[in-house]
Amino acid sequence: MNRPTGADDGGTRDGSRLPRRRQGQLESQVLTVLRSADGAATAGWVQEHLDGDLAYTTVITILSRLYEKKAVTRARQGRSYAWTPASDEAGLAALRMRRVLDGERDREAVLARFVSALSAGDEARLRALLSRAADDSDGADGSHGADGSDNGDGSQGPGGSHDPDGRDGSHDPDGPVAPEG
Q1: Is residue 103 classed as helix, strand or coil in its secondary structure?
Q2: I need a labelling partner for 119 at 20 to 30 A (CA). Which of 45, 49, 77, 105 fits?
Q3: How far apart (Å, rounded) are the C-alpha atoms in residues 145 and 157?
Q4: Where are the residues of the annotated region Disordered (predicted)?
Q5: What span, in angstroms and rounded, lies between the C-alpha atoms of 135 and 17?
Q6: Domain regions of the chain by residue span
């Protein structure tokens, strides 16, 4: 079926085709623009500040998907929304990793393969983070992270997100073992 190339099907408003982007690239670009804003930003503002010539509806779609993923927050501003990033880049990468893990049946196998593929440096970092999370989980200093976790520095720890429903695997016999404190 021959269709004209345009902003509504992945092209630009002038009819030219945009190069195919890797998964998450547009979301990352939108989040970068949102972080550069002084406070909350409208979709129109985001569109104006993005490199390229994306249609307004494309920006709205990206922001809506980010909202569904809890990567951005929104507040009514007149008839539209003002958008704000909910986390930094590291937090969003951790959220993506977490979603992949949560979507797999054999969590242990996925984690084992992930860990076995780490470089020596990354393995050492992971061990240090797990050790720090175990030390922090005893709550001896009474500190709590920004997300309500026991990570007193506001970080989300190696798991990437706090799950108040207990679906983070710490109470799941098939999930990863929670550090003992």
Answers
A1: coil
A2: 105
A3: 9
A4: 1-24, 133-181
A5: 52
A6: 7-85, 88-181
No. of H helices and E strands in the chain? 6, 3
Q: Collect contacts of 164-167 with beta carbons under 8 A, ≥24 apart.
A: 167/102
Interhelix angle 25-36/56-68, rounded to 10 degrees, is 90
Tell which residue, 86, 64, 111, has the closest CA to residue 161: 86
Per-residue pLDDT tens over the stretch 116-142: 999 999 999 999 999 999 998 876 554
Per 3-state DSSP, the chain is made up of helix, strand and coil in percentages (nearest 5) of 45, 10, 50
| Rounded Cα gap, residues 72 and 87, in angstroms | 7
Q: Please say whether the structural domain 7-85 has been given the CATH code 3.40.50.740.
A: no
What is the rounded distance in angstroms from the CA atom of residue 178 to the CA atom of residue 181? 9
